[in-house]
Amino acid sequence: MAVELHDLGKRYDGGAGPVTALDGVTTRFAEGTFTAVMGPSGSGKSTLLHCAAGLEAPTSGTVTIAGTRLGDLGETALTRLRRDRVGFVFQDFNLVSSLTAAQNVALPLRLAGRRADDELVRAALAEVGLADRVGHRPRELSGGQQQRVAIARALFTRPAVLFADEPTGALDNRTSHQVLDLLRGLVDRHGRTIVMVTHDPVAAAVADRVVLLVDGRITDELTGADAATV
Ligand code: ADP
Ligand code: ADP
């Protein structure tokens, strides 16, 4: 299901005066596609991702996820949409260190007061190649494996879209490749929709489409293959 951003604006009123983080962003992340968002530090990439995922409210413009305009939702409906329709992956994994891989995957559902079926949790970890790491805690896993647990957790509610903010930023080259291969496979084999912020052209090269952000505006669009040569 597609995610659409229309004329999105975001202004922060910081101590040093107002900052325009997003300045009229219009784009569409089509179902079953992999988009990378690139741009200099401070160009608004994280703000774009947070607004598109409903984690932050834009100052102007609209975000539509699978036909639902986020601005039309009340707080309860928005919380539910964030939980059920959106997956989010962070640079530093955000796993709970005292919980096993399986417990981490099940956590968002448990926090929502629902039961997570053990077989489904196993299947989610198998989907990211960690069928044999179900009972391991984060410190017993490599960085790449931890990120794959985080991806399994983010996908567990079958969200319409997976947002990833520098998912390979804390990984070495080899484990980055494992995570990027996994993300690519989720799009190719499972028809997932992924939007990934990255400053790494090698990471962006696995995307179908690369959106370039400068000063809160989209200034260019490339294919992933072109991004690798920039
Ligand atoms: P990027 O992810 O491309 O580095 P960000 O989206 O983090 O860019 O930030 C875009 C701009 O908005 C920057 O100038 C940043 O300083 C500013 N900004 C981001 N978050 C806040 C905030 N919570 N309060 C004030 N300014 C912010
Ligand atoms: P953080 O590292 O931000 O402190 P936690 O380690 O507490 O986050 O939680 C890790 C993950 O557990 C979150 O990314 C989220 O998926 C899930 N989670 C945490 N708190 C909640 C909550 N109140 N509702 C739903 N999911 C939650």
Strands, count: 10
Listed once per kind, the bound small molecules are:
adenosine-5'-diphosphate
Residues in β-strands, percent: 25-35%
Topology order in helix (H) and strand (E) letters:
EEEHEEHEHHHEHEHEEH
- Head-to-tail CA distance between termini: 30 Å
What is the residue-mean pLDDT, rounded to a whole number?
93
Q: Main sheet: which strands, in order across?
A: 6-7-8-3-9-10
Return residue spans where pLDDT drops below 50 for at least 5 consecutive residues. none
Q: Supply Rg.
A: 17 Å
The backbone outline, from C-alpha atoms, is globular
DSSP helix count?
Answer: 8
The share of residues in helices is: 25-40%
What structural class should be given to the helix and strand makeup?
alpha/beta
Major sheet size, sense and barrel closure: 6 strands, mixed
Protein name: ABC transporter ATP-binding protein
Keywords: ATP-binding, Nucleotide-binding, Transport
GO molecular function: ATP binding
Characterization of this structure:
The protein contains 8 helices and 10 strands. The protein is an alpha/beta fold. The protein has a 6-stranded mixed sheet with strand order 6-7-8-3-9-10, with helices on both faces. Bound molecules: adenosine-5'-diphosphate (2 copies). Keywords: ATP-binding, Nucleotide-binding, Transport.
Supply the key terms.
alpha/beta; six-stranded mixed beta sheet; four-stranded antiparallel beta sheet; 34% helix; binds adenosine-5'-diphosphate; MacB-like_ATP-bd; ATP-binding; ABC transporter ATP-binding protein; ABC_transporter-like_ATP-bd
